[in-house]
Amino acid sequence: MQYTEIMVRYGELSTKGKNRREFIGRLNGNVTKALHGFDQLRIHPKQDRMHIVLNGDDGKAVMGRLHEVFGIENYSPTVKVAKNMDAVHDMTTKIMADIAGDEPKTFKIETRRSDHHFELDTNQMNLDLGDWVLDHFPNLTVKMKHPDITLRVEVRRDGIYLMNQKIKGAGGLPVGTAGKGMLMLSGGIDSPVAGYLAMKRGIDIEMVHFFSPPYTSDNALNKAKELTAKLAPYVGKITFIQVPFTEIQEQVKHDVPEGYLMTVQRRFMLQLTDKIRVMRHGLAIINGEAVGQVASQTLESMVAINDVTTTPIIRPVVTMDKTEIIQHAKDIDTYDLSIMPFEDCCTIFAPPAPKTHPRLDRARYYEDRMDDVDGLIQRSLDGIKISEIKSTDHFLNTDQDVIAELL
Ligand SMILES: Nc1ncnc2c1ncn2[C@@H]1O[C@H](COP(=O)(O)OP(=O)(O)OP(=O)(O)O)[C@@H](O)[C@H]1O
């Protein structure tokens, strides 16, 4: 079927009252970015729908991209015909021939009319097309509730639009409508999922990744970049900020008792992320913590780490079971990458028995006792590197045989 447009229905957007215009504008920008490279199509964002007029561009390929844009509830590939019943009958036959098959099936016609001057009103159109289909497709019968096929017909001023599919979109809110947040991205399973969920709620994310050469390899850094590329289709491109953490980790290891190594390291990570957030004009920090998963994620641990900032910390996976997080990771295709066993900066300096219930006063005390905390933080900030990552970028050879050899 040669579709002429894709009709896009907005998600929660419709309920947002006075913010509506800003939301539609942002969605328009995001759709435009997602459809970059399709030169013929034109995007018309209207109050209640968005019309993507294809002008010959490939409808299937366009829908593939739309599928990753948050703020879209559903969309329908649509054919526009001239405003006369011969043209409507003709197209109805074509569409039905495409989908009816030979088995007995049920159908209904659902007409909407915004042009009230058209010769048939909504009811007459439903009856006329219903009869037409019954006459031409003997295996079809009418059913009003839950039919197998629903042919939607929209009579508008500039033409008549026919569609028979409503494809579920990504849902959520257009990325950017909720402002910007810094995602603390490790190479693990949880933080990419947290990033996806934050974007789904309209947060524009920038990645902050701590790495510790020579204790961590280029592969570990490239894995975090590759994960970023996996999340990029939802926004076009994502800023990746790599933060050198070696000196801090060595110093913490030297100065802090083993039980508090992890807590104090995490306090440094959070302080640095918060400073980067200010530099980048972010409003929040997002991480992949889930209550009780590991030693660093007990509530006591969160208290002792969170102490370094009052910035909102969003933890999208905080109450999920590991199995639920893994399912999300599989759905967004980050799982296979996440389980590649490259060393992470935290695991390398992880004590064998970190305190699962660290005390806040102790954590503060051990950190205060360290020399030149400000200098450590400043040198790390001086060493950050910022790059833009697109979905087409690759940083890692993901061929399993090659990986096996590297390990
Ligand atoms: N190297 C890192 N760079 C940036 N953020 C990190 C790094 N390591 C950990 N984090 C942040 O701290 C959170 C908790 O990390 P931790 O290793 O304790 O838990 P995790 O459950 O294994 O998380 P993940 O699966 O995301 O690695 C991570 O989800 C991430 O947001």
What name does the CATH topology of the largest domain carry?
Rossmann fold
Q: Into which percent range does the helicity of residues fall?
A: 25-40%
The secondary structure category is alpha/beta
Task: Give me the strand/helix succession.
Answer: EHEEHEHEHEEEEEHEHEHHEHEHHHHHEH
Query: Per DSSP, what share of the residues sits in E-state strands of 2 or more residues?
Result: 15-25%
Looking at the structure, what is the overall shape?
elongated
CATH superfamily of the largest domain: HUPs
Q: Give the low-pLDDT segments.
A: none
Please describe the biggest sheet, giving its number of strands, its sense, and whether it closes into a barrel.
Answer: 9 strands, mixed
Domain THUMP: 60-166
Subcellular location: Cytoplasm
Enzyme class: transferase
Pathway: Cofactor biosynthesis; thiamine diphosphate biosynthesis
